[in-house]
Design brief:
With 195 residues, the chain is an alpha/beta fold. The protein has a domain of 131 residues. It is built from seven helices and nine strands. Strands 1-5-8-9 form a four-stranded mixed β-sheet, with helices on both faces. Strands 2-3-4 form a three-stranded antiparallel β-sheet. Strands 6-7 form a two-stranded antiparallel sheet. A hairpin with a 3-residue loop joins strand 6 and strand 7. The protein is globular and about 45 Å long.
Length: 195
C-alpha cells in the first residue's frame, strides 16, 4: 500500500535462527520475502505444533482499508488486488492443530468486543482456528527485550516447563537482564491452555 511503511525488525531473524537451533530438523523458517501471505496460505498448517510470528501487528483503524486487527507480512511485490496484511478474519479461517502460537506482533491481543466470541483480536483468531494456546502482546514493546523474552520462553519449554511457568521464568529472565519495567515484559499474555 502506497504511503505506509513499517520499520524493519532485524532481531527477528536472530530469533528465527535461535528457535531453529532448538530443533533444526523439525523447524521451518520463513523470513523476508518468503514470509508472505501467499506462502502462509499455501502451507499445510496442521502439520505444525508450534507457530511463531515475529512481525508488526496493528489493532487501530487509521490505515485505509484495514478495519480489523492484523499482522504485517511481506508487503512488496503483492499480486494485483492483494496486500501483505494478515487480518484476524483470515486467521480465524485457517485450519490449525498447533499446541502453541506465539505472536511477537504488537497489539496482537487487542481488538473489539464481539458478543458471544469475546475480543476479536489476531491472538484469539488463532484460537478460533484451532490453536490450543496463544501468546500475544497487549502493546508495542521494544524489539530487543521482546525477542529475548521469546528466546528464553522456548528455552524454558525445552527444559520441560509448562507454558505458563516458561512465560513467568522468561519474564523474570529479562527483568534480571535490565528490562525491569513492566513496559518490557508485561505485554505478553498467554491465552488458552497453560500446560
Amino acid at each position: 500500500m502506497p504511503g505506509i511503511a513499517f520499520a524493519r525488525l532485524p532481531l527477528t531473524g536472530e530469533l528465527a535462527d535461535s528457535i531453529k537451533q532448538l530443533d533444526p530438523r523439525r523447524t521451518d523458517v520463513c523470513t523476508g520475502m518468503e514470509a508472505s501471505k501467499q506462502s502462509l496460505m499455501a502451507l499445510d498448517l496442521c502439520q505444525y505444533s508450534t507457530i511463531v510470528f515475529a512481525t508488526h501487528g496493528y489493532a487501530g483503524n487509521d490505515i485505509p482499508g484495514i478495519n480489523e486487527p492484523m499482522m504485517v507480512l511481506a508487503l512488496l511485490d503483492q499480486p494485483e488486488g492483494q496486500d501483505g496484511f494478515l487480518r484476524a478474519s483470515e486467521v480465524s479461517c485457517l485450519k490449525l492443530r498447533a499446541d502453541l502460537v506465539v505472536l511477537l506482533a504488537c497489539d496482537s491481543a487487542l481488538g473489539t468486543f464481539v458478543p458471544g466470541r469475546g475480543i476479536a483480536s489476531v491472538g484469539n483468531a488463532f484460537l478460533w482456528a484451532g490453536a490450543r494456546s496463544v501468546i500475544a502482546k497487549l502493546w508495542c514493546g521494544a524489539e530487543k527485550p521482546s525477542v529475548m523474552l521469546v528466546e528464553r520462553f522456548f528455552k524454558h519449554i525445552k527444559e520441560g516447563q509448562s507454558k505458563l511457568e516458561a512465560l513467568r521464568l522468561a519474564r523474570d529472565d529479562i527483568r534480571k537482564a535490565g528490562y525491569d519495567h513492566p513496559f518490557f515484559w508485561a505485554p505478553f499474555i498467554l491465552v488458552g491452555e497453560v500446560n
